[in-house]
Each structure stands twice: as C-alpha cells, then as structure tokens.
Structures
1.
Amino acid sequence: MVPLQYYIIMSAILFTIGIYGVLARRNAILVLLSVEIMFNAVNINFMAFSAYITPATMVGQIYTIFAVASGAAEIGIGLAIILLIYRGRETVNVDEVNMLKW
Amino acid sequence: MAIALPFLIALALVIFVLSNIVFFMWAEFKISGRVADRFGPMETGRWHGWAQPLADILKFLNKEDIIPANADKLIFRVAPFVGFIPVVMVLAAIPYTNKIFVRDFDIAVFFVIALSSFTFVSMVMGGWASGNKYSLLGAFRAAGMLLSYELPLGLAIAGVVMLSATLSLIGIVQQQTVWNIVLQPIGFLVFMVAMQAELQRSPFDLAVAESELVAGYSVEYSGMRYAMFQLGEFFGLWALASMAVLLFLGGWHGPYLPGIVWFFIKFYGIFLFLAFSRVSVPRVRPDQLMDLGWKILLPSALVNIVITATLIVLVPHYQVPLAVSEFVILIAALYLMRRVLK
Amino acid sequence: MSGQLLAFWALSFVILSGALYIVMTKNIMHAVFMHLLTMSMIAAVYGLLHADFMAAMQVLIYAGAVTAMVVFALMLTKSQSRPDGAGIAVDNQQRGASFLTAAGFLAVVIYVLVPQKWAVHEAAPVVKSDVAAMGAIIFKSYILPFEVISVILLAALIGVIVLARKED
Amino acid sequence: MNAGMTNYYYVVAFAIVGGVFGGLLLSVARMLRPRKISKTKLEAYECGMEPFEGNWTQYSARFYVFALVFLIFDVEIAFLYPWGTVFRDFGVTSLIEMFVFIGVLLLGLVYAWKKGVLKWL
C-alpha cells in the first residue's frame, strides 16, 4: 500500500517543477505547458485525497473532473491569446510582450 | 505463472489478430479485384494468390529503412510505437463471448475511445518528425479529419450506453434482448460512417490518398516502420469492427450456433461492408468531408441522444416507440438530404 | 516492496523526470511530446488510485486533445527559436532566481506537509471506481457546477473563434 | 491483488507486449534489410530539389480552431457517459439538466458554423 504522504510529496515536487517552468521559460507556449504541469500536480492531490480520505463521496474525483474541464477551456483560451499576441507582435517571447507597461 | 499469464494472453491475441489481418489483406485484394472486374492476385502460392500478403510482409521486412537527414531521429522512431501500442492495449478490453474475454472493464467503452486518441497524436508526431513540409501538412489534414470524426463516434456510442446503463462491453451485450441496431438506427449509421473515417479507409482516406497525394504523413517512412503504421490501422479496424458488433449487432447473441461463431460471422459481415464500401464509393471531397462530419453526423448523433433519452425517461415501454421514431426520422432525414443535395 | 509501491516509484520517476525535461529542454517540440508521456503516466497514477474513469478522461483530454491543440498552436507561431533549439534561447535570464523561488516553495511545502497527520480512511483506498456511482453523485449534488462548466466551455469556444479568426 | 489492480496489470502487460512485438518486428527487419545509404536517399521526399526553410513554417489557424472545438465536445462526451449510466434513476430532472448542457454547447456549434469556422481551409 502506498502511503498518502508519497502522493502529496510527489505532487508537491511536480508543482515546484511547474513553478520553475513558469518563471524561467521565455516561450509563452512553454509557460502554458508548465501551467498545465502545475494543474495536474493539483489534480493528483485531489485524486489522492479522494481515494484515501473520502472514498465514499468521491469529492476529490468530482472536483478533478470539473478542474479538467475548466483546464481544457483555460488552455484553449490561453493558446488563442498567445496566437493573437503573435499576430500583433511577431513574437511569443513573454519578455518582449510588455504593452501593458505603458 | 500468474504473473506471466497476461503476457502470454496478450501475445496469443496479437498473433491471432495478426493472422486475421493477413487474411483481411488477401480478402481485400480479391474483393477489390473482383469489383473492378479483375482477378486480383493469382500467382503467389498457386491457389488464388493466397500467399500474396505474406509476400508483402516479407517485402516490408526486406526493404531498406531510410531516416531522412533533416528528420528528428528520436520522434521519428517513437511515432510508430505511439500508434501501435494503444491499439494493442485496446485488445484487452474487447470480449468475444461472455466466456471468452480478457478482462471485463468497468469503463471498457470509454477506455477504447480514450486510447483511440493516440492515433492522431502518432500521425502528428510522424508527420512533424519527418522534416518534410508535405508530410507535416498531411499529418495536419489527417489529424483534423480524425478530430472531426471522433466526436460523432463517441456520441453515437453514448446512445447505446444510455440504453444499457453501463460502460462495460459485456454488460452492453447482455442487455441487448433486441439488437441495438433496431433501437438505434441513426446511431448505427453515424457509427459506421465515422468508423471508416477513423480508420482512414477509402471513401474517407483523403489525408493519405495514395493515388493523388503520395501518402500524407507517412511519406518519409519506409520498410517496417511504415508497415507498423499500417499494422496499427488494421488493429484499429479489428477494434472498431468488434465494437460495432458488440454495441449494435448483439455481439455473440444468435440462434443455434455457439456465441463465438456468431461473433465472427457478424465481425466478417462488418469487414465485408468496409471492403465493399472502399471500392464502390468514390472518395469524398475535403469540403464535403468536413460538412459531413460537423454538420450532418455530429447533429444527428446529438438528435439521436435527445430522442433516446426523452423516450427512455418519459415512456415506460420505450423499445417500440424508440425504434419507430428513430427509423421514421432516419428515413425523413435521408429523403430531405437527397432533396437538399440535389 | 509491494507491486503498487513499485509501480508508484516507477510512475513518479517518469512523471518527475518528464516534467523536468519539459521545463529544461531547448527543443519545444520535444517538450510537447514529453508532455504527452507525462500526462499518460499521470493517468496511470489515477489508475493506481482506483479511478479508472478519471484515468481514461486524462488520456482523452490531456494526452489526445490538448497535445494536438498545442502542436497546432506551435505551428502557427513561427517561433524565433527553431525546434531543434538553435536560435534565441527559450529560457530567460532569471533561471537562478526562478530556481531559488521554486526550491524555497518546495522547502516550505515539505516542511508543512511531512509532519502532517492525515485522517486517512480505514482500510483505504476503497475500490470505488464505478462510473454509475460517480454519475449519481455529479447529477445529484453537483448540478450547478455541471451547468456552469457548459457555459465556461461555450465562452471558451466563442472566445477562441473571435480571437483566432482575426486574420480573414 | 484485487480486481481493479489485476485489470491494470493486464493493460500494462498488453502495452509491454505491443511495444516488444513492434520492436521485434523492427529488429528482424534490421537483420534482413540491406543498408546502402547515399546522400540523395536521405533528402526530403520532394520533386527533386531540397525544400526551402524546413517544415517550421506557418499553417492556417483553422486547424487550431478545429482542435479547440474538438476539445470542448470531448469534455462533453466525458460528461455524457456517466450521465448515460444513471439518468434513468433521476427521471425528468436529469433529462432537463443534460438538455441544458447539450443546448448550451450546441449554441457554440451553431456559432462556429455561422462564423464559417467548420469549413476546410
């Protein structure tokens, strides 16, 4: 039997990797992929809690279903915004996209 | 022994399916030959060219393997496996009778649908890794088409799931006192059309149209790697044709003969349908393809779901009204379509 | 060591190294395909947690649809960095600071989480992967989120069509 | 080992057999096939000349919108299956819920249709 702790620590490390990716990446699409990693780290936590703490009501699983569905919407819109920025600025480099500074 | 058993079963199944695929290939040669008023292969192996597919396999094995210089070597090698492994995994979920099956999955139907999404990922991987604009464009066309037809396929299956209230394939077959094709004619039609598109077979093979475009996403593939893509397609045919039998044609149900025989009779019926429609229907135009997928199949699958759900909930004995209303709507829709398209 | 524990270690290794590869590699396309592998392995973790349905959904949505969408989007943005990593760097200059931030976060989380005692259910995890049970819970207690999700999806659809169709 | 884990064990076994079988085919072919590489053979397959600027060129945004519409409806399918297994028990209420859900997404499909997104290139 795998202890619950293992899942939580694994997902914490995964989330950390996602944070690093979001901060260190320059290409906006890779930033979005890192956000997806963080998203999935959180989902693993939900699933683990659901299986270990509330197996009867499956709260975590239901939450994950909704999280996945809204995550799908999020990545779709995120990519569309990146495409739009690309059309305007010919770049997907988040360092150069600073129109809001002025 | 218990640890090795699944591996042995898997190996036996793969070899069994492979031997059937060899037969498919030969039957397809013969059928398309006869339809075109030719003989098809006659020489190889003396009797009606029965050894032709084996010769083809030997040719694939002997062919030089070329990886283009500007290809992405790693992804190029991995892509055929991404296409092949999931279709082998699907075999674990398909029952043949209520005695002969590998495992009875709780979510078998959804499992098959989910794994089939690897097919277009493998195409995109292969097309991109080839380092050739045309193969990439072919991959995009193929992926766009598979995307468009995966939805009607899933929605057509949803109608069956609603009738039997389970996702287990064995459960679905056991619920069918009347075959689902009677209760779900719209769903069946949508499934059959979407299935051919999913398998990239001839009326819908415009992404790999071998006579016009060279071969779509697999231009740069040669020898055994190319054969693996083809093999994946045949395994997919096996899986989807079995699904059609199990979901709509009552699986192993049938009088007198044992269940396994009935299963394969129906299975080969579906195969014959695919083989005939491949040679007798002209290839659809790209714009027709998209219109068919999004504007005809997807709405009809949704209509099918709405009718089925409403009748099941509101009418106590829904079988007869469901069959009648679906059939009437189907006829009316086909009639209207003829009027509109004329 | 039990089979499940072994499977967990193997899956964690693949997931974590896959994620590291995604945030480290210079080859954008490889990152996308590694994303596919990582997501499939996360689906396997869901399987380990007895959630068959969620595992299949993870494969369907993340491994299938999202990967295809990211590849299409990548092909639309002709990035300055070539897929093989030549050209402009894909990372920015704050790698050190990012690393420190991430490491600090991890340290805090581990410090908080490790001593924590969870109210783990007796004899957990219970095998309860029945789709019907799940459907019953969603359509009994979570109707509002379910309908709201449909509106969110509609908003995303319309948003993308409006955003992506500017060209013609 | 309980029933659920046995199922996964079988799935993993099938995946491994699929991979090993594919690898076996490739290695048999490796032993049999000739190997005479020349520069021309390694060029991209095109009309006799090397393609310009590789394959990293721009494609139409259509594909992207297709993928998104697909993703949205995929999520719908994922919700339809659990609903399909239980909707009898809840009667008319669950029917109305699902019709609202499908109706809202159908609105999206109609919008996409009217905007001409669903055309092929």
2.
Amino acid sequence: ENIKIGLVVKSLGNGFFEAANKGAQEAAKELGGVDIIYTGPTTTTAEGQIEVINALIAQKVDAIAISANDPDAVVPALKKAAQRGIKVISWDSGVNKDGRILHLNPSSNELIGNMCLKLAADHLPGGKGDFAILSATSTSTNQNTWIAEMKKQLPKYPGLNLVTTVYGDDLADKSYREAQGLLTSHPNVKVIVAPTTVGVLAASQAVKDAGKIGQVYVTGLGLPSEMAGAVHSGATKQFAIWNPIDLGYSATQLAYRLVKKETDGKPGSEINAGRMGKIKVGDNGEAAMADPFVYDAKNVDEFAKIF
Amino acid sequence: MSRILKYRELLLVAIIIVLIAAFSYRAPGYASPKSLANIFNDTSILIILALGQMAVIMTKSIDLSVAANLSFTGMAVAMLNAAYPGIPLPLLILTALAIGAILGAINGFMVWKIGIPAIVATLGTLTIYRGTAFVLSGGAWVNQTQMTPVFLNTPRMPVLGLPLLGWTAILVIAIVSVVFTRTIFGRSLYASGGNPTAALYAGVDVGRTKFFAFVLSGALAGLCGYLWVSRYAVAYVDIAAGFELDTVAACVIGGISTLGGIGSVGGAVLGALFLGVIKNALPVINISPFWQMAISGLVIIIAVLFNARQERRKGRLILRDAAKRRPSRIEAPVEGAAA
Amino acid sequence: MSIMTADKQSVRHIPDRLSTPIGRLLGSWETLLAAVAIAIFIANSLASPHFLDPWNLSDATYNFTEKAMIAFAMTLLIISGEIDLSVAAIIALASTAMGAAAQAGFQTPALVGIGLGVGLLCGAFNGLLVARIGLPSIVVTIGTMSLFRGIAQIVLGDQAYGGYPPSFAWFGQGYMSDFSWWPTLPGFEVVTFEMIAFVLFAVVFGILLHRTTFGRWIYAIGNNAFAAQFSGIPVQRTKFILFLMTGLMSGFAAVCLTSRLGSTRHTIAAGWELEAITMAVLGGVSILGGSGTILGVVLAAVVMGLVTFGLGLLNVPGIVMSIFIGLLLILVIALPIVFRRIRSRASA
Amino acid sequence: MSVVQAAAQDPTPLLEMRDISKSFPGVKALDHVDVALYPGTVTALIGENGAGKSTLVKILTGIYQPDSGEIVVDGKAVHFGNAEAAIRNGITAIHQETVLFDELSVAENIFLGHAPRNRWGLVNWSAMNARAAALLTSIDAPISPYTRLKDLSIAQRHLVAIARALSVEARVVIMDEPTAALSYKEVEDLFRIIDRLKRQGKAILFISHKFEEVYEIAERFVVFRDGRSIGAGLLSQTGQDEIVRMMVGRSVDHVFPKTEVAIGGTVLKVSGYSHPTEFDSISFELRRGEILGLYGLVGAGRSEFCQSLFGITRPSAGSLELEGRSIEIRSPSDAIAAGIVYVPEERARHGAVLQMPIFQNFSMATLAKTTRAGFLRQAEEFALARKYAERLDLRAAALSVPVGTLSGGNQQKVVIGKWLAARPKVIVLDEPTKGIDIGSKAAVHGFMSELAGEGLSVIMVSSELPEILGMSDRVMVMREGRMAGIWNREGLDAETLVRAATGNE
Ligand SMILES: Nc1ncnc2c1ncn2[C@@H]1O[C@H](COP(=O)(O)OP(=O)(O)OP(=O)(O)O)[C@@H](O)[C@H]1O
Ligand SMILES: Nc1ncnc2c1ncn2[C@@H]1O[C@H](COP(=O)(O)OP(=O)(O)OP(=O)(O)O)[C@@H](O)[C@H]1O
Ligand SMILES: [Mg+2]
Ligand SMILES: [Mg+2]
C-alpha cells in the first residue's frame, strides 16, 4: 500500500501552486511508493479547504501538507485529522501551532521582509523616497506577516518612506485599480512593492498604461514566467521569489519522514529533505527553506521556462 | 426643475457630476479630461457587459453567466493567441464574439426551447462555463509573455486621447442604441418583457426574442473576454469573478426594471458609469481599503432609493381641479397603501 | 333564490381532484429528487470504499447543513417572490459581532444571542428597504451584500477574531453523544448538533409553509401580490417577517459556522448566497415565486452534499465539481419539462 | 334542437372555419365547430362562459393551432402558425385580455409587430407617429401618439386597442367582448366605428354577453354551447328567448330577479370621503338589506372610492360609521375584520390568484375559518369551496385545478365566492357581472338578492344601465370624482342617470 500525502493548496489554478505540485511529484517519484493528492478549493476560502480536508480524512490519507487560507479556521478540521492518525504539516502559508506538527516557511519571514525593502531601495535613487505596498487579500497570512516584517525592519532603511498599504484581493482588475489609485493619489510614490504575483503584474500593467515607466517602478514577489513581460517592458527592474518547486519538494519530503516516523518533527529536530539537504525545525515548530532569489532582465527568461 | 429631473437619466448624470466634483475636491486633478477619459476607459468593459445584460433583463430574464462567459472566452482566445501567434487579431476578436455568442445561445436555447427560467439556466451555466475554463486551461495561467504584443496593445492604442478600448465601448453603445430604438428586434425586446401575452398576440415571438437577447449578451461578454485579458495582460480562471452582479446592479441603478420592459440604453450606460466612478474614485481619494466595500454597498442602496422616489406613481387625476391644488397636497399620505 | 332553483335541473358535481394520490406522488418533483439522491448514494458507495463509513458520512453532512438552514428560510422568501443575496454577508457580520464580543469576554449564551440578534437586525434592514419602502429585493440585497460584509471588513481589517470560549465550539463541532441522555445505540454516536438542527428546522419550516395560514399567505403573495392584498393578506408585513426569518437563520448559520471554524475573518462564507439559492432551486422552488416545497429543498441539500462529498473522495477539484452541480441543476429542472412535453404530445 | 337556417339569400362567406376542434388538458374547448363570416356583416358569437368563444378567436388569430379542422379564406385553406401570419392574411382582433404595453407610446402600441420601416430596415418613427395620429383621428380619439400608454385612462386605452386592430389592412375584424369594460357613452362610439367598418365591407365577429348590444349591431349569430356550435342564422328571424335556449339548453326567465326585501336601519355611514386627486366629498348612508347601485362613466372614480372603503387607498378626509360606531380602515384586513369586503373589477390582476387551485382561492380571505390555531385543515377548505362552487354553478374540471384554466366568467365566480364565504355585513361589488354570461349573471343577481334578503348590504358598481335599474334599491351617480346625486328606485329612468353621469343637465 502506497503512502498517500494530501497536498492542499489555497486554490487550484494558481501558477505558484502548480509549480509546487511539480516539486511534490518529483519528491514522490524519488521516494517511491508515495501518491500525491494535489487538491484545494475553487476560491481561496477556509470553508472550501475544510471540505477538502474532510474528504482527505475520509480517504484515510497518511499525511496532509497544507498552505492555509486562514491560520485558525482550518485548525479544528486538522485536529480531527491528527486524531485519526494523520500527520499534518503546513507550508507556504501557515497554520496555527496546535493545528500542525510543523510549518515550512519558504524562506524566513525576516529575510523576505528585508528582501522586499531592499528591492524597493534598489529602485530608488540613493535609496531615498516614497513607496507603497499592494498586497493580496487583507486576510492572507503570509502577506500580512511579510508586511509586518517590512514595517519592523523599515528603520534599517532610513531613506524609505512607506506611504500606504492597499489590497488588490489577488484579483487582476481590483489590483489594477488600486495601483491606478496609488499613482493618482500619491504622485510621490516611486516604487510599488507587491508581495504577490497578481499584484506585481497588475501594478506593472497600470504603470505601463499610465505611461510612467521609468518614473515609477514595481517590484515584489512573483513567478518568473508571469513576471517576464513586466521586466521586459521596464516597469519592473528586479523581483524576487523562492523556488516553489523546491517548496513543494521539501514539504513532501518532510511529510514522508513524519509518516515513516523517521522524526517527530519537534522543535530542534533536523529532518532529511532529499536534495534540499537537512531542514532544521526552529522555535514554534517553524522551519525555513532558503533565501529568496532575485531575478532581473538577465536571468528571467531562463527561469520563466521552468516556473 | 421637477420637469427636468423627471428623467431618471438626468438625475443620474447629476449624481455622477456631483460625485466627480466631490472627489476632485479631495483629489485635485480627478476631474481633468485625461482622468475622466481614464475613468470611462476603465469602465468600458462594465458598460459593454451591462448593455448585454440590459437586453436580457428587458425580456424579464437575467443572465448570471456573463462573467463566466467572459472568463471562458478570455481564456480561449488567450490560449489561441499563445498557441498560434500567427492568427490575425481581427480573426481572434471574431472568434471571441462567436464563442461568446455560442455560450449565450446555449443559455437562450434552454430558456426558449426547454422553458427553463433564465435565472436557473444561467445559474447553472455560470458554474459550468467557469468550470470548463478550468478544464480547458488545466488551471494554468496565460501570461503576458505568451501573448503577442498586437493582442495586448491594440485596445490601449490612444485615438484622440481615448484608448481604443473606450472607443469600442462607444461603438457598442451606438450599435446597441440603434438596435434598441430602430429595429424590430429592439422593439420586440420591450414588448416581450413589458407584456408577454400582448407580445404574443402582436405576433412577437417572445421565446425567440429572449434567445437573441441571450445571444447578444453572450457575444458582448465574449468581446469583453478578449478586452479583459488584453487589458490586464493575464488570463486565468477566476477573472471577473462576481462581475455578473455588478452588471445587474449597473442596469438597475440605470433604471432598467428587473420585471422587464422598462429601461433605456442611456440608463444602463450611466448606471455602469456610476459604479465605475465609485470603484475608481475610492482608491484615488485615499479611502481606507477596508472601508471601500461598505461604502460602495451603501452608495448602491442610496442610488436605488433615489431611483425609486423618482418612479413613484403620479396617480391619475380624476378630479379636474385637483391638478391645480396638487402641489400643496402632495405631501398627504395617500399613495402609501396601494403598493 | 327560489327563482333560480326552479329552473336549475341538477347541480353539477365538481370532483376535488383530478389525479389519485399515487399519481400525484409519482409525478412529483420530490420523487424525482429522492430517486436522484438514491442513485448518487449508490454510485458513491460503488466509486469509493470510504464512502459507507458512518464517521465519514457524519463529516459529509457539514457540506450542506449550514447552507441548508439558510436555504429553508430563503425558500420561503423566494416563494413569496423576493430574494436575499445578502445572506452570506449577514453571516460575516454576525460572526464578526460574535468575535468582538468573545474578545470582550462574553460567554457562549451571550455570543449565540449576539449572533442571532445581528442576523435579525440585518434581516430587518433588508425587510425595511424591500417591504416598507418597496425597493426591488434583488438590487437592495446586492447593495446590503456589500454593506454588511463591508462593515465586517471595517471592523476586522486584516485581523481575525479567535479565542472563542471552549464551550462555544459545540455548535459546529459537537456530537449529540456529548449528552448523557442521548441513546447510545450503534450509529447514534455520529449524530452532530448541526444534523439535529437541520432536521428540526426542516420540520419547522415544512409545517410553517405547508400547514399554516402564514404559509398559504406566502404562496398567495408569490403568485399574485395584488390579489393577496385585496384578500386582506398583510403583504408587506409578511414579506418583512420573511426577511427577518432569513436574517435570523443566517445568524444561526453564523453561530454554527463560527463555532466550527473557531475564528472569524471578513471573508467567511464567501459565495454562500448562490449555493443557498441553488439548493432552493434544485429543490423545485420556482425562482419566479409561487411554488416549491421544503421537502424538495431537504432532498436537494442532501443531493448536493452527496455529490460534493462523493466527488471530493475521488479528489475531483472543486471547480470541476461545480460543473456537475450546474449540470445537475439544469438537468433536474429540464427533465420534467421535457417529459411533460413529450407526454402531452403523445396524448394529443 | 332548432337550428335556424338562413340559406337562401346567403352571400359567399369571406372566411369559414370548418370542423375546428381544440382540446386542453381535461377540457375539450372546441368540438367540431363551424363558423362563417360574411363581408359587410357583423356576426355575433354567443355562448356561456367557457363555451369556447375566446379559444376560437385565438385560433383565428394564430395564437393557438387547432387540433383538427381548417380555416378557409376566399375559398383557399390557410394555416396561421403565429399571430403575424393571421395579420398578414388580413385578420385582426381586439382580444378579451389586455394586450397592450404600458411602457410604450401609443404609436408603438398601435404598430408593434408591423411598424413602418425605412429603406435600411430600421423603424421609421416619424412615419409611425404620423400614421398613428391619422388613425386616432379617424376614430375620433383625441389621443397624442407620443403619450405613454400608462398615462391613459381605461377608455382611452380601449380606443388605442381599436386603433391597433384597424392599423393593419384587415378584412376580418374580431372583437372579443369589447364592451365589457365600457360604459354607455363609449359603447355608442364603438358602434359608430363598427358601422363604418361594415360599410367598408369588412367581416366582423362580435362577441358579447349583452343581448341588447347584439341585437343592435349584429345581423347574424352563431351560438356555442360547451364547445359545440349549436345554431347559426339571422338575428332578424330569431328571438332572444330562442337564442338563450340554444345557449343554455333551458330558458332563463328572470334576468334581474330582484326580490323585494325589507330594508332595515343604517349599517354604513360615509361622510365627506375625499381624496386629493381621485374623489371628493362623498357622503351617503347604506341600510341593511339594501342594494345601492353606483353608476358613472368609466373613470368616474367609482373604483377608487370603493377601494378606499376597503383600505386599499387611504382617504385624506372623511369618516366612516359602521352600525353606529365610528371606524377607521387602514388596510384590507381592517375592512374584512369590520365586515366590509370588496370584489375588485380586474379579476385576473386583483381578484384571483390564477396559479393557485380553485379551493385555495375560495378559502383565501377566510382562512381563519378553515384553520385551527393557524393550522390549515384541507378537508374544510374543500367543503367550503364545494359549497360555493355549487351555489354559483361553477364550471371546472376539479376543485384542485388552477383558477387560471377557467374561462373568464368562471374566474369571476370564484372571486365572488371567495367573498361570500367571508359572510360580510357590507359587500362592494365592482362591476360584478363584467364579462359574465347571462345564465351566470342571473345566478349572481339571484345571489345578490338572496344576500340582501339575509340582511347584507350591497354596493354594486356597474356601468350597465339595465343592471343598475333592475337591481338597485337606490342609485348613486358619480361624475369626475364627485357625487352627482342619489335617487330612489321608484320612478327612476335611464335618462336621468345618463344625464347625471355625463353632466348634460
Ligand atoms: N390555456 C388554456 N388551458 C387550459 N384550458 C383552457 C385554456 N384556455 C381555455 N381553456 C378552457 O377552454 C374552455 C373555453 O374557454 P374560452 O376562454 O374559449 O371561453 P369563452 O367562451 O371565451 O368564455 P368567456 O365568455 O368567459 O370569455 C374553458 O373551459 C376554459 O377553461
Ligand atoms: N390610466 C389608468 N392607469 C391605470 N389604471 C387605470 C387607469 N384608468 C383606470 N384604471 C384602473 O381602472 C379602474 C377603474 O378606474 P376608476 O376608479 O378611475 O373609474 P371607475 O369609475 O371605477 O370606472 P369603471 O367604470 O371602470 O369602474 C381602477 O381600478 C384603476 O386602477
Ligand atoms: Mg372569452
Ligand atoms: Mg372601476
């Protein structure tokens, strides 16, 4: 009997998670005897994820690795899974401590926050000037954590001035309008930082349509395949992202080790993650994968072919 | 004064002007011609969709599948463009119109030939069309880099200060106006919704009229599929999610009766513009993002309230001399009970 | 009168009904739905070995119980010729209010009261605009849909409310076997509070709609509001009460859902309004008002729950599932119409 | 059965319907009927409610397709797949139901479906308005073609309907109960128009339940009973009694069987009822067992006034006393509770819930009586419905069929029955016999007498003089929202009432 791992994502049809699934499949093939059930709700809601989790529990999977739409709301369902002997971990977007054994951050939150600020500063002459944040929904855990980190580390960049934070809800049209609003109402904003692909894309488009390429830059976190156009148009000089394939790969590795009882996943333990080496579980049961990687016009096309 | 404002359209124009004035007080430059052209351009897609929705609502039906149709068609033409960059743009636009029209025709067929209530048929196809878009694309996005520059840039090409997207909306408004006021089909739309029995007796085929209303709505949604994808330079399954309700709201704010038979092209356009101004302005005048949803909800309710006051039945005058006395007595609580 | 009876030869007798009870049963919507439900049940048990597990089936009921509670009230509203698109937004607002109260240290009974109270208030607001002022409900509730959820968003921003008292969790996660009086028969231990609430509300709404004067008023209003008014039926008051009831049931659903999730964000229950309406329509409620039964909606809820759970077990993505629901909706509505047409053509 | 034959001097018919049959589920509406229409001739189609008259009209205008039989125009068999086809063949109709569009202009109402077009196939508005204006002038209707229909009075709408029927080059004009909603004055205008059409050589099919009208305007007749043609011929050779016998299968002697009833004390006292725009200073007393006729031209404000007694419209001034106690009526339920009920004029819109079963319509206003603690008891509902269905001689396949499947007259019986079940003190009947056949009319009149005998007070709005004169103990006339006087029955003649109603003192 194969080991069944449920890879639960925020919503299906998102390039980032499709890429993560690729990594998970790679890990499954490498480990052998592992079936990945790639699943998730249609829209990014907690209720939808709970239905998916219930279905996984009913199928008696061995492990669930989830990127949560809501850190609290899925906890009761995941607890039920744990009671029925299912190993639960979260990755990418975390679940509260009592709902999972461990959480795999794509990178450390400090590093991501810092990276976003550094990208902003790099786009500004002398690292001085106004910038604004265009986020996803106001409820998404990871974006909020990163924004909090950015605010915490802002004093390290004395020239940077955060003007406002707006939310595009990961909808192309809303993000576009919010970006447009930023351009009109804050003419001094020279950089828009969007820690989400839809946001960077829409903002680049808005900047381009407003004819402000070269005056206003957009940066943030996005997939190379989706961002290539923005980079070529000049709206974006650089952006960053970790490798989602590696993320899916690592999450699968961790879940497998837990099922095989090679580790208990307690803080302090070091877990074998195949080609990613050993991953150390820190306080709060959180583990981090690697630094985000910066892409620009020179390397974006090469990576766009991969993810 | 009251004679001028008798027309709902003028009232809406006034409200929109007041809104723009108020907004430009908070954000100077908001009322500049460039900014206004920008707002119109931004609202173009909603206007086009609202006009299709209006044709359907006019016949006492509703099309909840417009946004799903847009998503499917947008995905389809984006994938076509990505896979065969050689296909000329006009052909792609025709394809979008055709796919949209076919999806609309499916709705229309169910309403006409099977007799399923429109709201049910389109509630069903709403999920089916979007689901099919997912199946078609396997959930993958079509990104900017995969689409050709012509495909992406044509609607943005400015002509006399307004991008082609805005001109497209103007063209659609013109065509739909002629269809509504000057063609047999247009008059049949009013008749079928206003009094279906009477329409039947007058030789109007109510079912067929509904069918073509759905085809029109579908074709316009298909066109918007292309426009949307090129505007935001990305195609994915969830685009325009929930937009169907915006189109209905635009129609109703514009005075199109959900009971059918009442409304004008101007009303639908203004209703859409009203929503467009609100949506565009809130980010610009720096309203906290958390307040935007509540404000737009409130504004919709207020607009509907205003509309309803305009539409209050005047009451027939049986007493000959009542007309003279009327102004002083108009406050009397007489209309109330006869709802 | 003597004049008339003189030349009246015989009183024509009019039978009460044309068809026999069995004929009516066979021709009814509910029979069709029950058949569909049984077919899906069998198909599910064949397709997945995990389906016929009492605990799994118990989990599966969460797919529809809360939505069905709203659908019951919505059914009455739709039959009366109105609609409420703001139900999901009411859940968000009620849940937010409960969250705020929980933060302030209120205990479970107070939280439930607040949830129901906010639901009732929202319903009253809709009712006021529709029944008193006379605005079209479809537009009003498109507006209040944004307004109610918007207020929740203003209150919550990017935050979440958690920290509900432990006893509050029972509504959405509790089993009846937590009570000592609950029979310990095999199978009974999987019965949840929500299942009981679902059955109870089905019965209450069924009786209200089909066996009371108030229910008859609803049908009369939905078919011809003028004639209802001319018959002395308080049309506006009835509609107002229906909006109140829909608000209240949304508040109740908010209690269950919040308790099940243990946290509140402003996106809670997004998109449920269309699911509740789909449930009602699949249950044979005429969207144009005037006809429909609660039994039909109960069956429709079960059918939708079974379909989503069965397909979930096969790991069919949610969006593909929705294709099935859409097709089911259209087919179930279309088939009787098509059959009727074929039959009348055959008899002609 | 005596079928009158007038074969000898028959011209050739313009249009013939031969052996037409049409069934609806459970009803054979038409059973092998034959009808012939002749140029320059008005043929009256006579029959009880539900005899199949309107069904025939709908077949002739392409709205229904017959199950069997053929339609022959000028000796050629034709087939009308839809309403347009009938119009193309020169057949036009004023239907029994309202077939106009509230939101459209008068001109559009007239030309919908056959609007003049310009050379690009677009609607030619100026030609349309001009032609509409010409048409309206030709029938002496002072109505602007630009007005929206909803701003017209009932009588004006009727003129628009006539203009619409005349807007096509028609050779056959069908009028299905055109006079049911009209008062004396408009009927005269209509008859002038019919005369002109006759002179133009058109064949006219005229449907009415009023014999005076039939004898005045028509030359030929066809009688239907239960969907079969029973007889046809020349009216000049056939007496009314004979036609009634053909129609009903028996003789109906007393058309207005008003029995003398002892009149009691005052039940209802209306003082100074006023409304800002609809009526002014209406005052009268209604006594026990009395039938008060309320006469006036269409649009005189009678309905609005009656609706204010029932709580639909709110008066702005005035007071009401019921049995000596002052009452205020704010809603229909107040009125019902006080014992005042109102049978509306527009039964399909205000009276019956067409989609609901007959028995539920009967019990609708009296649910309290058939329920226990708010719970319905179906057996009692059926019992109540059966009782009133039999008393009113209702024709229906079953008590559980929707009211909408009944003929117009039978729908009216259900609406009246609903209120009789409420056992009121005062019943206001707004045009109670509008569109009702003479058998049922006699039944309704008999019933009114019977109720008056039981001590009920009746206000009967009617635009039909014979009915007013035959049934009322007293008659009140309204003109333009004001009382034009009250007369006792003794020595009252039609001329007085008409003069009061029109204001030609
Ligand atoms: N659409 C329909 N469906 C079912 N039955 C119908 C329908 N239309 C008419 N009928 C039935 O056919 C019969 C003839 O109806 P029709 O309307 O032709 O009567 P009518 O002679 O015009 O009566 P009235 O004088 O009351 O107008 C009636 O029994 C009626 O109930
Ligand atoms: N222009 C109109 N628009 C809408 N409804 C009208 C119009 N004219 C008349 N009606 C309706 O017709 C009915 C009769 O009108 P009204 O009360 O003015 O006259 P009346 O004296 O009762 O005439 P009738 O002889 O028809 O009974 C009313 O119920 C009213 O609703
Ligand atoms: Mg008739
Ligand atoms: Mg009247």
